């Protein structure tokens, strides 16, 4: 896997993946940025959230669970001193479907956290990561 980061101006950069997708990253105005894009640490959390969400939905679909939506709300704490690494990350899944089996949702979240989500497992080397979930019945 490869990526390329190109400086645009001040503290604004463009990140491009080897698959050709691009994203703008920028700093806050007080750091010389124009607030044109996400901060790098925000992008890291979003990447982790997408990775684990992908796992949860894939595992549920393979288990033939009628999942219709999955949202991962992530909250994180960072160290006060430089380097301001993540120290705690919590992922709260809201999984929606018609007749979902809560045990299957719990299993999917656990498998992602402990076996499949490369991003979560890697960040877990530096931060305490916790997960929980709720199951919501989809409307008719």
TrEMBL record:
Gene3D superfamilies: 2.20.25.10, 3.30.300.20
One Pfam family matching this protein: OsmC
Classification via InterPro entries: KH_dom-like_a/b, OsmC/Ohr_fam, OsmC/Ohrsf
PANTHER family from the UniProt entry: PROTEIN YHFA
Descriptive protein name: OsmC family protein
Source lineage: Bacteria, Pseudomonadati, Pseudomonadota, Betaproteobacteria, Nitrosomonadales
């Amino acid at each position: 896997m490869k990526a390329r980061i190109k400086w645009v101006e001040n503290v604004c950069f463009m990140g491009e993946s080897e698959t050709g997708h691009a994203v703008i990253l920028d700093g806050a105005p007080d750091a010389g940025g124009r607030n044109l894009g996400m901060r790098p640490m925000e992008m890291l959390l979003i990447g982790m959230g997408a990775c684990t969400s992908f796992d949860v939905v894939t595992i549920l679909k393979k288990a033939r669970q009628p999942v219709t939506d999955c949202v991962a709300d992530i909250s994180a704490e960072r160290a006060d001193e430089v380097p301001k690494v993540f120290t705690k990350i919590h992922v709260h899944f809201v999984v929606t479907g018609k007749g979902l089996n809560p045990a299957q949702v719990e299993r999917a979240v656990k498998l992602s956290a402990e076996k499949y989500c490369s991003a979560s497992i890697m960040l877990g080397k530096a931060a305490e990561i916790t997960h929980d979930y709720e199951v919501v019945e989809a409307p008719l």
